[in-house]
Amino acid sequence: xxxxxxxATGLVGTEMLKVLAERRFPVTELLPVASxxxxxxxxxxxxxxxxxxxxxxxIAARPAIAIFSAGGxxxxxxxxxxxxxxxxxVDNSSAWRMDPTKKLVVPEVNAAVLTKEDKIIANPNCSTxxxxxxxxxxxxxxxxxxxxxxxxxxxxxxxxxxxDQLLQERxxxxxxxxxxxxxIDLNVLPHIDVFQPNGYTKEELKMVNETKxxxxxxxxxxxxxxxxxxVMGGHSESVxxxxxxxxxxxxxRDILGRTAGVEVVDDPAQNVYPMPKDSHGRDAVLVGxxxxxxxxxxxxxxxxxxxxxxxxxxxxxxxxxxxLVAKGLV
Length: 330
Prior knowledge:
Helices cover 32% and strands 23% of the residues. The chain contains ten helices and 14 strands.
């Protein structure tokens, strides 16, 4: 099983290599791909060093699967070229997510949509992934009608530049190359991605549109506010869900306790609730603060936390690749 990891030296690419190794994915040959300046640099994987190769060399090698985490423009240019030589691309950028000809997949929710004809598969936005994992089984039972979500997103979602900014600010050092238009330490920024004419950011609109596509239901109304917080490793979400059917809170807990990929962390009397520091390095979506919204019927409040570099990116992509192998689609 020849596997290419495109963007192998970045934050998410590094995490993808770690997850491939941890989950014992059947890699027989690794092709780490990065920018021209990184070619030849060594990447350590499962006890061996692999030299970073160019995009052209990786395409010529015709890997079975190429997992991309290198930005939208790179994906738009090169994913089709990998697909042309028979490689299945799992792409972590936003480039293909809302393309009607491409599948947008969270394995616990909708892996069954994949077929042998799918050569470019989109990995959703990190914040959307943890939301739909937590909601999908509840949607099947009670029918989600409306979601109001506010996010508290880690600086790791922006990348190394943002991590450096936070650490430099925290140390009282000059910021060499700021990732944000304002300070992030001791601050929160209600601004993730680019503002659109309607006042929402691209990140917020991703959550709206991707949730509907993954859950296969355009009738679900979603509104989002996405906020960057001075945290490293883990996105948090306050989620208010209005259902068509009424629910029993004990049954909600039971459903979530049996939902693939979810761990219920909810004992407020003992100060037990999901926190980003507890999600760091883990694949589970942590759900807690479960309570009825007492202002209107059939409405639930919950708090959802996950490691954005793992389940929000690397792990989800690797799980897609695992499904492809298990079902003989590659």
